[in-house]
């Protein structure tokens, strides 16, 4: 039959989902990296006779899915909220299955929008671009917040200033925010996740409009990838990238796109269907 548990402690979630995360470290990476010590989490864990079928972690007004099996889609759909607009992210098949069960509760349709694809590093051919990689520090926070908000507006991942600052300050404090510096200063930035089960994820690749066309994003992505893959605990480096952005980053020829695309599903209904 299966049940859904709600877990609010990151380390507990990591332990309970360990077998699932190990079995698909790339597909589970978005959820696994959100379960860190000291952070408030809400993890919905679908299980059947002590076997984990899948999970969904909440972030702001959205839920991110792990790969699902068995009855997980229906179990999770029954636990998702119906009073406010819901955003759901995961593989096309899993999000469609959960959304289908969930829409039965609200009696409305869902809108599907491709957000980004997950690329897996398969080769490294650093572009010849002037400049150098830097780890961003406290003096870069204000500019990094501005760029993160600009990135959000361009990609549909809109965040307010408070959320952007919290994310930037967290990444800076852990040394996970990088920039590309040329003779005139910073010209690009990206973020890097913590390592989880051998996987590190790169995302938020951004170059201001006036600096584009010089290969800065490609150079920064390549440099960070090279540094991460040199770490003994890292087996795979992945890159979250919109299809439109991919055309601007030359080094994506060195990345395998045969991984799960990510979709946002936006519901239109607001009330559960009456029985």
Search tags:
275 residues; alpha+beta; Aminopeptidase; 2 domains; 13-stranded mixed sheet; 13 strands; 31% helix; disordered C terminus
Written account of the structure:
This protein has 275 residues and is of the alpha+beta class. It has 2 domains: 104 residues, Aminopeptidase; 136 residues, Aminopeptidase. Helix content is 31%, strand content 31%. Strand 8 and strand 9 form a beta hairpin. The radius of gyration is 19 Å and the shape is globular. The C terminus is likely disordered.
What order do the helices and strands come in, and which of them pair?
Layout: E1 3-9, H1 10-16, H2 18-23, H3 29-32, E2 40-48, E3 51-59, E4 62-65, H4 72-77, E5 87-90, H5 92-106, E6 110-121, E7 132-135, H6 141-155, H7 161-173, E8 177-182, E9 185-192, E10 199-206, H8 216-229, E11 236-241, H9 243-246, E12 255-256, E13 261-267
Parallel strand pairs: 4-5, 10-11
Antiparallel strand pairs: 1-2, 2-3, 3-4, 5-13, 6-11, 6-12, 6-13, 7-8, 8-9, 9-10
Identify the CATH homologous superfamily of the largest domain: Gcn5-related N-acetyltransferase (GNAT)
Q: Please state the average pLDDT score.
A: 85
Q: And the CATH topology of the largest domain?
A: Aminopeptidase
**Tally of distinct domains:** 2
